[in-house]
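Hi D.,

Good news: the full-assembly prediction came through. Inputs first.
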Amino acid sequence: PGKSKSKVLKAAKSMRKLGQDDPRRVVHSLKVGLALTLASLLYYSRTLYDGFGVAGMWAVLTVVVVFEFTVGGTMSKSLNRGFATLLAGALGVGAQHFASLFGEKEEPIVLGFLVFLLGAACTFTRFFPRIKARYDYGILIFILTFSMVSVSGFQVVEVLEMAHQRLSTIIIGGATCIVVSTCICPVWAGDDLHNLITSNIEKLASYLEGFGDEYFHYSSEGEGKVKVSNKDNSFLQGYRSVLNSKSTEDSMANLARWEPRHGHFGLRHPWKQYLKIGAISRQCAYHIEALNSYINSNIQASEEFQSKIQEPCTKMSEESGKALRSLASAIKTMKDPSPANIHLENSRTAINELKVAVKASSLEQADLLAIVPVATVASTLIEIVKCVDKLSEAVH
Amino acid sequence: PGKSKSKVLKAAKSMRKLGQDDPRRVVHSLKVGLALTLASLLYYSRTLYDGFGVAGMWAVLTVVVVFEFTVGGTMSKSLNRGFATLLAGALGVGAQHFASLFGEKEEPIVLGFLVFLLGAACTFTRFFPRIKARYDYGILIFILTFSMVSVSGFQVVEVLEMAHQRLSTIIIGGATCIVVSTCICPVWAGDDLHNLITSNIEKLASYLEGFGDEYFHYSSEGEGKVKVSNKDNSFLQGYRSVLNSKSTEDSMANLARWEPRHGHFGLRHPWKQYLKIGAISRQCAYHIEALNSYINSNIQASEEFQSKIQEPCTKMSEESGKALRSLASAIKTMKDPSPANIHLENSRTAINELKVAVKASSLEQADLLAIVPVATVASTLIEIVKCVDKLSEAVH
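Then the structure:
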């Protein structure tokens, strides 16, 4: 019992952490419960009073299937579901009518063939990346409704009645979802994307701002000594999450397209631009990953050489970090990103200073082999500065 | 009309390409059509003969919703759907019975509250990453069935009858899907993961094998000359797809877990090991990305220095590429990966050769600044060799 108790405690703890990490999750759960209860009660009262029938279940079903974490997700699924049902219903009636022109024996064969044809064709279109991203759910519902209507074997009048009921219940369910998800603490995919992009850039910025100290501080303590740093080094890990952010960004941008005007975001907000900025910051993160493999290695270069390049290197890293931070805040507040230009200018000057310093350093004394890692760090930093430059262009 | 014609032509072309890129897509579409027709005809004949009723629609619905591209996906969805329906149905009957203990007026309130509670709680558990990966669909169906059963307002006997029908139709639909997807040209997620991992490693290998020539060949043509290379350089782009492969690998590994024994893969095949290997090869790809930014820059180092390090660098890159290739083929054929050890050994020797070469090079003549990029390339290659080492350990 002690073991199971500790398991329960552990689960409770991780549940609490999940809620604390993002309180919107708790709110979302409550919202789903609310929408579900609303749809259920509607169905319940309808059954009691005017016999809405089994079709009313579709309202509940719609709520469960359609309600997503973000407004964009809910919108996209509701609209997809609604239009696909409408279209497929009409086509299904047509198919049934067409099949009824044949004899009674041939009818199931014709219908089966039509279902096969449409099912296969629609499934194939789901492989198109662009269709998959936006209309995947709609096509699914299309196949579903078409085969159900065309195979149902009802008379056309019955089908129309059924279609009317189904469509109205789906609209009720979908509308409930859209209203609840947009009116009660809405979670906008656009906002999320916006925040993700800026926080990613900020993570890169904190890494770069801290890198100079971390790298040269270590080496100045001497070779043999193990570094004892009491500072919080977590900022050095933050950039890692940027490396694999592509799929999240893509899906958020897809959902953001479905969202109506809200906050600072117009209807045709340039979400593609966010993806572009995301791609460049990911590239920057790759360079940082390369940089990071040197952070724990000893610098064996001579004191003299090191002291010469320490300043420009630290400056490069710090200034590009600052430039990133100011770009991030420019994106966040949607203001002119020109304050970043000073830092960019500074980091470019630092590159030149570094070049001068390297040129001036006396080659005879320095051991070339020992310089290699430091040189790598320096040239990786140069690449990062270039990346930041590109990023700033994309923001403008 | 000319414009719309060209549009249609374009769509047809991209459709054809989609099918040619992976013919399994066409087969999958046909399989979906087949399963759908089977389920529909079953439903159709049943309706005609013994009145299987509206519940029969659930078989069609199940097929549409459950049929996935891979066997693992179909399995996971079918099983999730089946068990969730069973469990939620039982709970729903219990909830209805519990609510009926209250008065007729309180009943809907109690039921509404229960639906709210369960809906919110289940939605919250969907945020757990581990649960989301494996049981997301099951929980969705659980909420769905529970609210539909508990709100249906039927008598317990009726509910049991309905539950029996629904469950049997779901089993019919699910079984149709599983049989069609496993028996007709099955697409195993495990196979796909296996191939993805090996092809990713091979892509890295081709890059590394070609890098030495590409980099030093360029520079030997002289500074000002623009490179005219008639060779196919596509191998230099292949590694890019490795950078963002994480989400695909994760989802495939999740699906692979659901698959039964097939081919060389046992029931408890170490899929986690694949993810580990995937992570290391991604790290290797990050280093290659860093390397790639130097491939088009001019080498300004003196001829002498360059000629000294050209050989060890090319050797390092080639040998680590060969090591990767032999590791990939070891994974592919599931054989002992020891043939890679020779190449690993060779690349380590090349590192030492490089060190000797750098030490021996006369510092006075070389311009330090010009050396920096070349030095970076060399030390990035060293990092790549380390990565390959780790990869080989993981494969063992």
